[in-house]
Write a structure and sequence with these properties.
This protein has a single domain, classed as Alpha-D-Glucose-1,6-Bisphosphate, Chain A, domain 4 (2-Layer Sandwich). 22% of the residues lie in helices and 43% in strands. It is built from two helices and five strands. A five-stranded antiparallel sheet has the order 1-5-4-3-2. It is globular and about 35 Å long.
């Protein structure tokens, strides 16, 4: 059983610029998972699907880039549910930096 985390990151960049900035800095996304590293990623249209591995666990994640918002979804394995609140807080605090 997995534990989903969803966070909206508002921006005023427009879809294309937000997507470009995320593409340049998405490696930082691994920092949202303790001990994490991005092991796979691919764009499908305006959606970035990626996998972060950390603490011996695999986290599936997705960023849906919209005109004024990026919807981030992390699907945590049960073991990492202990970190859900910390990961959500870090996403809300640090996520907008991906768009700077």
């Amino acid at each position: 059983m997995s534990v989903p985390i969803e966070v909206d990151l508002p921006h005023k960049l427009g879809r294309a610029e937000a997507k470009r900035r995320i593409g340049e800095g998405f490696g930082k996304l691994a920092d949202f998972v303790p001990g994490g590293s991005v092991t796979a990623h691919h764009w499908t249209g305006d959606t970035l699907d990626f996998t972060v591995e950390g603490l011996g666990q695999r986290v599936s994640a997705r960023l849906d880039v919209q005109d004024a918002n990026v919807h981030a979804m992390f699907d945590l394995p049960q073991f990492m549910a202990l970190f859900a609140d910390k990961i959500r807080a870090k996403l809300q605090r640090e996520g907008p930096k991906l768009l700077e």
